[in-house]
Amino acid sequence: MAETARPLRIWAVSDGRAGIEAQALGLAEAVARLRPAHILTKRIGWKAGLGRLPWSWIPPAARTGDPVAAPWPDMWIASGRATLPFSTRMLRLAAGKTFVVQTQDPRAPLSRFDLVIPPAHDGLVGANVFPILGAPNRISPERLTLERAKFYDAFARLPRPVVAVVVGGKSKAHDLPRQMATTMARQIAVAVGAAGGSVLVSFTRRTPQAARDVITAELGTLPGMIWDGTGENPYFGFLATADAILVTEDSTNLATDAAATGKPLFILAMRGHSAKLARFHEELQARGISRPFVGDLAADSYTPLAETDRAARELLRRYDGST
Questions:
Q1: 189 in Cβ contact with 218 (< 8 Å)
Q2: For 203-222, how does the pLDDT look when each residue is reduced to its tens digit (9 = 90+)?
Q3: Do 63 and 198 share a domain, yes or no?
Q4: Which end of the chain has fewer CB within 10 Å, C or N?
Q5: CATH number reported for the structural domain that contains residue 214 in this entry
Q6: Range of the domain at 73
């Protein structure tokens, strides 16, 4: 598919959940930083709970959400299980004229895609597989500069160091019970208080309410902001403003976002264990990017993780060579 004078047409496709959409949209944006492109976000759902079925059982006609129909894009960049009924058929639907990219391990025949970009800790291999450390994300130096400026008036007078605390929660492998959340928050409060700093705290949709409540109570006495979920989401502004970032161990996305800033990164332990996530965190530590949080905010500098840009360069290389 040779490059033409017109901008590339890219669809970034997901089910609309923030963490899933960020992978597809972040990769599309990275491509657009390298080559003129128009990005259209598509969000897909399925009627009557059909999305819980194996992808091959789901008829495309049962789709809800945004329309998925010709004219097809030059690139289809998708993330998440909900996209698979279309992603796995897109090469045929578009008669090979759309370059089909899937992030994560699709758990579907690799021949259905032009390129699969999974996290390296999944161990997926294949001729059309390009593993990266972590997940594609929307962090770039330009975005951080813009977000820092956007929230400058709100955060500029906070005492330094400003510590961003991003809390995940319950998953198949991890949990954050009330007592553990209390201990975690008190340890953070002691470290930030001793440094004379402030906090910017953000929760995810998976954070248990009890954990949210005790963390808010323990850290609410410090200068800063605890986002309550109302108004504009300041997540990117938190990352851009912070001098150090603490994230819970349950999320590849959270750690990858933080690592892409180049800021000191500390991992907060939770209850539970995932062998795949353990491999991911071991690699971050081996590269000098992160370290477990043990009450100390001192850390060495490192080169910001730029795996999304590396994946975008590989995507374009294969796209250009596909005709």
A1: yes
A2: 999 999 999 999 999 999 99
A3: no
A4: C
A5: 3.40.50.2000
A6: 8-133+308-320
DSSP string over 14-46:
E-S-HHHHHHHHHHHHHHHHHS-EEEEEEEEEE
Task: Write the pLDDT tens digit of every residue in 111-136.
Answer: 999 999 999 999 999 999 999 999 99
CA separation for the pair 193, 84 (Å, rounded): 47
Instruction: Name the E strands within 83-161.
Output: 99-103, 115-117
Q: Please report whether residue 281 resides in a domain.
A: yes
What's the token pair of residue 104?
A: 């994560």
Residues 154, 128, single domain; the answer is: no
Same domain, 35 and 162: no
User: C-alpha angle 265/137/112, rounded to 5°?
Assistant: 135
* pTM (global) more than 0.85: yes
> What pLDDT is recorded for position 172?
92
What average pLDDT does this structure show over 243-268? 97
| Residue 116 near residue 102 (C-beta atoms within 8 A) | yes
Residues 75-111 have pLDDT tens digits of 999 999 999 999 999 999 999 999 999 999 999 999 9
The pLDDT-based confidence of 322 (bands split at 50, 70, 90) is confident
CATH number of the CATH domain containing 123: 3.40.50
Residues 61 and 118 in one domain: yes
Let me know whether 83 and 174 are in one domain. Answer: no
Give a yes or no: residue 78 inside a domain. yes
Give exposure, 211-248, as e/b (b: 16+ Cβ within 10 Å): bbebbeebbeebebbbbeeeeeebbbbbbbbbbbbbbb
